[in-house]
Design goal:
Elements: E1 4-13, E2 19-25, E3 31-33, E4 36-44, E5 51-59, E6 62-69, E7 72-76
Length: 78
Amino acid sequence: MPLKIYVEVIAKFDIDGNITPLSIRWEDGTIYEIDRTLGVHRRASLRAGGAGMRYTCIIRRQKRYLYLEDSRWFVEGT
């Protein structure tokens, strides 16, 4: 089963309570800017387990899923 890779996230919180992730810091310290957020939905991670808000993001021209589960952010590892 793939692992949850917990990451640091810089995010913007607007006055309506919406959260927009702006960048992630990978395990090795590399920071990746999030180019665009395509959608936000409550979803389960079928690959790594767990559930929360799933952000469909474009990072370096690739679609990635970023999850906010309780107060922690993760991506699915292999």
